[in-house]
Amino acid sequence: MAELQRHADQCILNRAGQTTDPVVILGFESLSREDGDAETFCRSLMHAFLVRSLTVVKENRGISREKVAEEHVLGNRIKEYIDRHYHEPLSLQEIGNALNISPYYLSHVFKGMSGYSPIQYLLRRRLGEAQTLLISTDLPIIDITLMTGFDTQNYFNAQFTKHVGVSPKRYRDNYVIGKSKNISS
Question: What is the mean pLDDT of residues 32-47?
Answer without folding.
Answer: 64
